[in-house]
Amino acid sequence: MKRRDLLKLGGMALAQAGAARFPLLAQTMPMHPAALADGKADYTLRIAPVMVELDRSHIISTIGYNGTAPGPVLRMREGKPVTVDVINDTDTPEFVHWHGMLIPPELDGTSEEGSPHVPPHGQRRFQLTPGPAGSRWYHSHAMAMDDLHKGSYTGQFGFVYVDGGNDPGHYDQELFLALRDWEPFFTATMEDDDDDTHNSPMLERPPTLNTDPNGLEVGSMTYSINDKSLGSGEPIRVREGQRLLIRFLNASAIENRRIALPGHKMKVIALDGNPVPTPQTLDSIFLGAGERIDVVIEMNHPGVWILGSTEKIVRESGLGVVVEYTGQHRPPQWIDPPKAPWDYTIFGTLTSNAPAPQQTIDMVFEKIPRADGKFNSWLVNGKPYPHEREFVLQQGTRYRLVMRNRTDDAHPMHLHRHLWELAEINGKKTAGIIKDTVVVPYFGRAIVDFTANQPGLSLFHCHIQQHMDYGFKALFRYA
Asked: Residue 217 and residue 407: Cα distance in Å, rounded?
């Protein structure tokens, strides 16, 4: 059964007025009054149960930060140390990962790297130096396995914006919009219609495919942008002639997503918070789980529009928001954008300013159906995690990482505590695109270069929670 058929059985009706509510504007979270005895922290995150009202008839219970999901937008200054108090009001240990930050492993927020957990009904103070500048985010990095009420399946996520001090401010509104799915469930019948990479060259497709029955995977029928589903809350209100800066985040634990605003084009200026060498103006954008894209939109087509998923059944089940021009009163309109493959390389240049790679690390990704009982197992170079001292880095060495995806999924791969430069996607070369998460296409190949300049353990994994939990990760170590 395809997702569109399953959703027809229980999908959410689309109201014609209203949209997502946007409490997450560009403002710094105030300091928490209940500071520790040795002085107030710059920020306090309290992990606790929260209620999220997606719409008036659909309220869910989850775990969030500071009483909301998403949590507050945290604004920090690049290079200026900050203290963060994390208070855990739940019954389980928690980890807060600072995605995209170049910080030591003990602060990074993962058990694999040896970061200390925040104990149940306890608290811990962290001091970190934010960087690099740009759109980052924070989220739970707890293992979930077969418990869909843990880790990134919960509402534990939020934006971090690290200010580098050189923002020209050429925009009238700045919005932080997180794409999100809720109420996950296990399924063996749902197919992905939004993979977006099935028409790419399948350079890594094995000559003989494994035809064993697939294990249970995680699906969803409930979506939102920030904390509101399409048809609920307040619209994004604009005036003709304004310029919107939207910082998008795909905070899904499950899926990659394509987003559009009919009648308008999006100028992509940054990927994963890092300015692109060649900005491009597009009809739609594609974000793997964990990726961020910053776009500028010229508001030059008055009306009432839906900004949302290009997949109809996902959009009508909540993944959208109404954009309303001043003086316009009509039902919100959606028009399918032209179909075009997502191509990272258009944002790059022909040559890199970085040194040439000195060593190559080759990785092959495979899926073994139902190798973990009801669930699939994911292998890197023929084995699941852990990989004992397989990936040992020499400090200062420039590496080329070749990722060969021999599975029928597109995988958003993330390397902690490092930034990498995209060198090739499916044989198409590029340079100058700096990211921390890259979608390796369906039966495809991605090549990235990075410098081993962050000593300590660094986790490498697929950003789809279930894939990571069931073996799709490795640990990079320094000699």
From this structure: 14
The one-character DSSP state at 107 is: H
CA distance 470 to 196: 24
**DSSP H helical ranges for 81-187:** 105-108
pLDDT at 192: 55
Q: Which fold has domain 175-341?
A: Immunoglobulin-like (2.60.40)
Cα–Cα distance between 375 and 377 in angstroms, integer? 7
**Residue 391, SS3?**
strand
Under the banding of pLDDT at 50, 70 and 90, the label for residue 387 is: confident
Angle 202-271-45 from CA coordinates, rounded to 5° = 120
pLDDT tens-digit series, residues 94-153: 999 999 999 999 999 999 999 999 999 999 999 999 999 999 999 999 999 999 999 999
Helices (H) and strands (E) in the chain, counts: 4, 33
Q: Which ranges constitute the DSSP H helices of 62-149?
A: 105-108
DSSP letter (8 states) at residue 94: B
CATH of domain 23-167: 2.60.40.420
Antiparallel, parallel or unpaired: β 320-325 and 304-309: antiparallel
pTM of structure: 0.92
Residue closest to 246 by CA, chosen among 290, 304, 285: 285
Instruction: Using CA atoms of 461, 470, 368, 341 in order, give the dihedral in degrees to the nearest 10.
Output: -40
The domains of the chain are located at 23-167, 175-341, 359-478
Q: How far is CA 424 from CA 171, 233, 446, 449, in A?
A: 33, 42, 6, 10
Give the span between the Cα atoms of 374 and 473, in whole angstroms: 19
4 has pLDDT over 90 = no
d(CA 196, CA 340): 9
> Could you confirm whether domain 359-478 is CATH 2.60.40.420?
yes
Spell out the residues 6+ positions from residue 57 whose beta carbon is closer than 8 angstroms to its own.
Answer: none
pLDDT > 50? residue 26? no
Residue type, 236: I
| pLDDT of the residue at 105 | 98
CA distance 105 to 474: 15
pLDDT at 272 over 60: yes
